[in-house]
Amino acid sequence: xxxxxxxxxxxxxxxxxxxxxxxxxxxxxxxxxxxxxxxxxxxxxxxxxxxxxxxxxxxxxxxxxxxxxxxxxxxxxxxxxxxxxxxxxxxxxxxxxxxxxxxxxxxxxxxxxxxxxxxxxxxxxxxxxxxxxxxxxxxxxxxxxxxxxxxxxxxxxxxxxxxxxxxxxxxxxxxxxxxxxxxxxxxxxxxxxxxxxxxxxxxxxxxxxxxxxxxxxxxxxxxxxxxxxxxxxxxxxxxxxxxxxxxxxxxxxxxxxxxxxxxxxxxxxxxxxxxxxxxxxxxxxxxxxxxxxxxxxxxx
Length: 300
What we know:
6-stranded mixed beta sheet, 5 helices
């Protein structure tokens, strides 16, 4: 009888040990799963903070800062942003250059939540989508269909009155002019065939033409040329940047635009869409910089 009781006791001890071992394994796995779930939750929370901080930092991005990024390239630090106890002291704004497209802008955020690092990139287009014209032409009809034609008339005039930046030359031609490009300089040719220096160079111009202008030889300019109603431009002209032609402005000769042609699309004008040349010269127009197409990328 004592042997039987001993066997039963031994069996009980064995069963208890097995149950204890199984319980330990089960509880250990439950604990690991809880820790894993907690870590995943914290990682997601850290990512959500990074996303929120990116949008919060974007609220402080000014048009001037976007122009700097597009025009000058490089990267710029933005003011610190925070939410609850999570912050990024140095949000960064930089350019994303792609061939054949306007320069995009990227806002980068980095933060830490409960010791877990998270990053987010907010990318967007800085240039008004209406200026994306693969054929190089933004016609009067397209502007009217977009509902901007009437508003752009006074806006353009106001933009041209802004003081030009260093290196940019603002010019208004109100009298008939005969021109000649010589040794990279632009000279005026009088009726007596005298040559009077006009521009030291033809780069970075904002040129409003209200009269008749004729060039004696092929002319190459970079910047923005605005042909107003009643004006005319005669000769072979190559514009690197933007040519604006109001209805009622005449063009005679071979006109080539590397950049963007805006306006009355008739006559001998050939346009080649080159976004970089456009943004380098037309950034001053009030409706040119218009952020859109926001895309967020979270980095765990």
